[in-house]
Amino acid sequence: MKHAGRGWGGSLLTAYLVLFFLYLESPILIIFLTSVNQGLTVTFPPVGFSVRWYGVLWDYVNEASGLKPGLLVSLWTSVWLGASVMVGAVLAGVLAAYGLRRYRFPGRDLLRQCFLLPLLFPQVVTGVGLVLWFSAVGGVPTWVRLLLGHMILTIPYVIVTTGASLETMDERLEEAAMNLGANRVQTFWHITLPTIRSGIISGAIFAWLISFSNFTVTYFLFSGEMKPLTMWIFEVIERYVDPSLAALSTLLILLTFTVLLILNRLFALGRLVGLRR
Asked: In 3D, which of 220, 241, 240 has the Cα closest to residue 231?
């Protein structure tokens, strides 16, 4: 009877995990099926099978007559903005995580919680606060507004991932380096950073992806002179929704998965050949 109970329990757990996974991934599946819909509107389940909307997406790229221009410009804007946010968030987040972990001072725990507040606040609140502050300051370029706004959202992720790596790091490595004559800067550069590299890279990936896909805060900070991809898609949806946007979303999802797989493959290969020091 005990074995039968365990068998039923294992089957129910497996079924639950499969259903839960399908629930999580169902939006991606729906987007893909919509992108190959033969109909003229966004419908689910799709009516027939066709790749015509990928052709329409190519027309967007070529800025064909009657279609909204600026897709490639907006895509490139999101790419370089995400890269800039990633660099800024890593520089600020790694130093903040190191200071919060290695130094003891009054109010440290409170300060750590304050760094994580952007994860708790609704992004609408953050966006409204930023647009009011930038309006009061005046004269702030659009790219600076977007860079600072996205960094507020992404720095906490870098702090969390880097802090987790610092928690598991053996501090005796740093002590040994300083006992051998290295100063704090040399120890940080040659010992600490390589050791916590996985946490830094994880935070950097999160920062780029969050910046690239952010809509709410971007909506409050963008302008006509600088329009990230999410804003371009929003303006297209305001006019007309067709499956070509689902085709674009499918390609963006594939791009994200490709980046993650390449990074995972590179670092797994690095462990195999002993590149990690």
From this structure: 220
- Whether residue 181 is found in the same domain as residue 136: yes
pTM comes to 0.81
Locate 152 and state its tokens.
Answer: 């507020």
| Positive or negative: CA dihedral 98, 101, 103, 109 | positive
Cβ-based neighbour number of residue 1 at 10 Å? 5
Kindly state whether residues 54 and 77 are assigned to the same domain.
no
Beta strands, E only, 203-270: none
CATH number, domain containing residue 114: 1.10.3720.10
Residues 265 and 138 in one domain: no
**Please, how many CA atoms are within 13 Å of residue 114, restricted to the half-sphere of its CB?**
7
- Compute mean pLDDT per 10 residues along the chain, 277 residues long, and list them: 61 84 81 78 74 83 80 91 94 91 82 85 89 87 92 92 86 82 84 86 88 91 86 83 82 82 61 42
Residue 236 sits in which domain range?
68-241
Strands of the chain, DSSP E: none
Total of domains in the chain = 2
The helix (H) or strand (E) run that includes residue 253 is helix 243-273
Q: For tokens 């490139």, name the residue.
A: 76
